[in-house]
Amino acid sequence: MGTMLEADVIVIGGGASGITAAVAAAEKDASVIVLEKGSTTGGAANMGMGIFAVESKYQKAQLVDFTKEDAFNLLMNYTHWRVDARLVRKYMEQSSNTIDWLETMGIEFLGAYKYFEKSTQTWHVVKTRGSNAPAERAASNMFRALTERAEELGVQIKYNTKATNILMKSGYVAGVELVDETGETVMAECNAVIVATGGFGDNPQMIHDILGYDWGKDLHSFRIPGVQGEGLRMLWEAGAGRTAPTMELTYTTPGVTDIFKTLSETMRQPNLMVNLDGYRFYNEEIMSNTVYTGNAISLQRERMAFTIIDDSILDTYRKTGLDYVTVHHNIKTVDKWDKEIDSYLSGGQSETAGLAELHNENQKHQQNVYVADTLEELSELTGINLKNLKETIEEYNKACNESDQMFFKKQKYMKPLGGGKYYAARHYPAGYGSLGGVRTNDKMEVLDPSSIKIPGLYASGTDACNIYGDSYCFFLPGNTMSFAVNSGRMAGYNAVDYMDSDEF
Ligand SMILES: Cc1cc2nc3c(=O)[nH]c(=O)nc-3n(C[C@H](O)[C@H](O)[C@H](O)COP(=O)(O)OP(=O)(O)OC[C@H]3O[C@@H](n4cnc5c(N)ncnc54)[C@H](O)[C@@H]3O)c2cc1C
C-alpha cells in the first residue's frame, strides 16, 4: 500500500468525457484528480474530428434550418422512445452552449458539416491551427485545450495510472483503488467518482461474449488502445445496473479503407453490392450511411459483402467524378485509381496518412480488392456464387434501363456492368467502439438494477452512452463525441452539486 491520495472528485479515464468532466467539476471549485492509464488525455476522441450541436452560432451563420425540436424528434423517433428522453433533451439543449464554452478555452471550429448527404448539418469540426480544411484527428486540438484548462484550474492528472476498483462505504462512494505509475497499489479517497473509461472497443473477449462478433474475422472495428471495459466491470461490481451494449457499427474493406483512399472511396460508391450467395440485399444508394451499411452486411453469410464495378463505371467516374464525397477523406475523383490499384495488387504502400496506422497489421496483408477479366474468374477469386451472380447482374443491368424494382435505388445511381475488367471489394462490419453498458439517469448518476441511484457514483461518455437504441444515429453526426463531452460536463457539475446537497 502506498501514499494516500485525496480529492472531492476522482474521474476515472481522461478521455473525451473524463477530461471534460474534470474541467466542469473544477470550475465549480471542487478538487479533482483524473486517473488516466495512458500517457495522454483525449482517448479515442483524438482520432475524431468534431462534435454534434444544434442551434449553435455556426449553424445560425450557415443558415442551417434545423432546430432542437427537430433533433429531439428525429432521435426519439429513430429509437422508438426506448431511450431516456429527459437525458436526450438535456444533452441537446446544452450542446450549443457547450460550443461557446469550449471556445472560451481557445478551441475554434470550422463550422457545421454533414457526414453524408442525408445527414443533418450538426457536425462541428474542430479547426486545426493554420488550416481551414477539415482534417482527420482535428479533435485532438480540443482535448489539448481542455487539458490545459484543467491544469489551470488545479486538476491533478495522474498519467500511467490505472483505476482497479471503486471503493464503497455504507452504500456511498468512498474512493478508488488504483495502480500508480510505479506499479504500486494505492487507495484514493473522494466523495464522488465519475467513470468515463470509453467502453470495451479494445477487448475482443467482451466483444465476443457481449456482442457475438469474432474480432479480426467478422468484425474489423478500431481498437483504440486502453478501452478494455474496466470501467464497466468496476461499475457493475459496485452495484450498478446493466444495459445491453451495442457496437457503433460501420463497415470497412480491411487493408484498404483509410489506407488506399481512392480505391476505398471508389468501392464505397452506390454501385452493385452482393453477398456470398451472389444476391443483392441493400439499396446501395444509402451506402454512405455507414451504420446502415454495417448493419446490413452483418446480417449476411460470413458477415461479408462485395461491391462490384467495371471499367465502364470507372470511365464514367473519370469524366464526372465520384457520386459521393466524404468530408474526412475528401476524395472527389478517381485520378489516383490506376496508381493505387497497381500499388495495392503488387503489395505496395499508399501515401499513408491520417487514420491508416490505426488499422491492424494483419488486415493489411489480407486481400480484399480483386480484379478479374470475367465473372467466372471473379467468382473463383471471391467465392461469390457464380450462377446467382450472373443472374443478379443480368437483372441489375435490366433495371439500369428501366427501374430498380428490387430496392428502389434512384436511377441516377444505376450503372450497368459488363464493360471491361471487373473490380470487387470485400467489406466487413467495422466500428468505432462499443456503446453503453451502465444505467444512469438524466443527471449521469449511476443507478442500481432497480433504478435507485448509488450516491456519489457517476458515469459518462461511452460507458453510459445508451441514447441510440440498437444503432448509432448517423443522421445527427458528431453525436458520440458530443455525448461524451456533454455528459461529462453534466456529470462534473452534478457531482459537485451532490457534495453541496443535503444528500451528502
Ligand atoms: C477513428 C475515430 C474517429 C472518431 N471520430 C468521431 C467524430 O468525429 N465525432 C464523434 O462524435 N465521435 C467520433 N469518434 C468517437 C469518439 O472518439 C468517442 O465517442 C469518444 O472518444 C468517447 O469518449 P469517452 O471519454 O467515453 O472515451 P475515450 O475518449 O476513449 O476515453 C477513455 C479513456 O479512459 C482511459 N481508461 C480506460 N480504462 C481506464 C482505467 N481502468 N483507469 C484509468 N484510465 C482508463 C483510456 O485510456 C482513455 O483515455 C471517433 C472514434 C474513432 C475511433
Keywords:
504 residues, six-stranded mixed sheet, five-stranded antiparallel sheet, FAD/NAD(P)-binding domain, elongated, single chain, alpha/beta, Flavocytochrome C3, Chain A, domain 1
Structure description:
The structure is a single chain. By secondary structure, the protein is α/β, with parallel strands linked by helices. The protein folds into two domains: 5-245 and 436-500, FAD/NAD(P)-binding domain (3-Layer(bba) Sandwich), CATH 3.50.50.60; 249-431, Flavocytochrome C3, Chain A, domain 1. It is built from 15 helices and 18 strands. The chain has helices at 16-27, 57-61, 68-78, 85-103, 140-152, 204-211, 230-237, 261-266, 290-298, 311-320, 337-345, 361-364, 375-382, 386-401, 479-500, and strands at 5-6, 9-12, 32-35, 50-52, 109-113, 123-126, 156-158, 162-169, 172-179, 185-189, 192-195, 246-252, 273-274, 305-310, 369-372, 422-435, 445-447, 453-459. The strands form four sheets. It has a six-stranded mixed β-sheet. A hairpin with a 5-residue loop joins strand 17 (445-447) and strand 18 (453-459). Helix 4 (85-103) crosses helix 15 (479-500). The longest helix has 22 residues, at 479-500. It is elongated, with a radius of gyration of 24 Å. The chain starts with a strand and ends with a helix. The mean pLDDT is 95. Bound molecules: flavin-adenine dinucleotide (FAD). Flavin-adenine dinucleotide binds next to helix 1, strand 4, strand 8, helix 7 and helix 15.
